[in-house]
Amino acid sequence: MDAVFLARLQFALTALFHFIFVPLTLGLSVLVAIMETRYVKTGDETYLRMTKFFGKLFLINFALGLVTGITLEFQFGMNWARYSKFMGDIFGPPLAIEATAAFFLESTFLGVWIFGWKKVSKSMHAISMWLVAFGTSVSALWILVANAWMQHPVGYVIRNGRAEFTNFIAAVTQPYAILKFLHTVTAGYVVGAFFVMGVSAYHLLRNRDVDLFKKAFKIGAGFGIFATIVVFLIGDFHAAEVAETQPTKFAAMESVWNTEKSAPMYLFMFPDEKNQKNTVEVIGIPKMLSMLAYHDPNATVKGLKDFPKGDRPPVTITFISFRSMVILGTLFILLSLFAFYLIRKDKLLDKKWFLKMMIWAIPLPYIAIELGWVVAEVGRQPWIVYGLMKTADATSTAVTIPQIIMSLVGFVVLYGALGIIDIYLLIKYAKKGPESAKAEAVKGG
């Protein structure tokens, strides 16, 4: 167990924990804005109660996401000093824009939304939540632009051992960054949709506020159909971009060992990294992998054996994570379509088994997103900046193993406590349900 492994483990744990909260923030902010817009348009108090109920859950999640994101940046200077020195001029501008523009936009209008009930017009109050949703997406954009540059560096020059921008716009507008942003944000929409459907299903099973939660479920299902289909389509284009810019990652994602023209895609197989082959290859679809990678059935897919062994990523974890993510993505489309069909046919309450399934389905989009990040980051190894800097060369030289272990244990304990608090509060208030119309009237909000 060396310093590089411990530093990677610490960053992985904190990043994966932080990203439990980010996707729900992205998705639920839009859904709450939709709910409040329905209230403004219809005047139906049911949508107002729905907005306040899911808005409260959004705020609980937002607070934890904010706290856990800050510690990630500390690690750049603590464990990854050589990386920070090499990447400072590249990573700095996107993070500065995210902090000074996007974060202040979302936090300012979130304040308006929290304290502005009865103080601003109904329309302005709804607009404030749309601006919060916009701000969260813009915030994600700049973080993902920085990450995309690590995956595919463009518009730079190496000067005095440091990477410096020569074309900032090229980094922002490159296809890798745009597709990564769209794929991540729409994945967050899936999380939000399934969260709303799952919470609504819980109350519908108990026959509570049936009218409100049927409407909420319908909003979640409609949004879910859009989000699940779009994230799947964008994922296809993103995979093709990965094949073009990170061929080692793509080969690991599909466990391709030998270079092959018109490569088939096997539905069932398992990588054997030791012997550099697949132990099982069942139901091969001719030319499908070439089609998926390059949108050309006759294209050549480069295998892992054509790359130096030291440049290959871990295959098994990358392959399993990618396949599992795709399987879950397909399941989400089917569940969203069936959910919308039931609500349209007014048969939802008759399908108790499906309502129970949607409650248990709440964690699945979270798992799919975390698997996606495993594919993105493990699949990039051994590079921390693809083709320019290896992970082993990026850690701090002054930080000792005991120091990393101490901070790692501290993060695990702190984040474990925060996670328990967050889950407890979300479950508590999700189960409690919205306040009654009478209570809302007494409050005047």
List the helices and strands and how they pair.
Blueprint: H1 3-18, H2 22-42, H3 45-78, H4 81-115, H5 122-151, E1 156-159, E2 162-165, H6 168-173, H7 175-205, H8 210-245, H9 247-253, E3 260-261, E4 265-272, E5 277-285, H10 288-294, E6 300-301, H11 315-344, H12 352-360, H13 363-378, E7 383-385, E8 389-390, H14 401-432, H15 437-443
Helix pairs in contact: 1-3, 1-14, 2-3, 2-5, 2-7, 3-8, 3-14, 4-5, 5-7, 7-8, 7-12, 7-13, 8-9, 8-11, 9-11, 11-13
Number of helices: 15
Rg for CA atoms: 23 Å
Order of helical and strand elements: HHHHHEEHHHHEEEHEHHHEEHH
The main pleated sheet reads as: 2 strands, antiparallel
Detailed description of the structure:
- It is globular and about 65 Å long.
- Helix 1 (3-18) runs antiparallel to helix 3 (45-78), helix 8 (210-245) packs antiparallel against helix 11 (315-344) and helix 9 packs across helix 11.
- It has 2 domains: 3-253 and 311-443, no CATH class; 260-301, no CATH class.
- The model has no long low-confidence stretch (mean pLDDT 86).
- Helices cover 71% and strands 8% of the residues.
- 41% of the residues are buried.
- The chain has a two-stranded antiparallel ribbon.
- Strand 1 and strand 2 form a beta hairpin.
- With 445 residues, it is mostly helical.
Précis, in short:
The chain is mainly α and 445 residues long.
List descriptors.
single chain; about 450 residues; mainly alpha; two-stranded antiparallel sheet
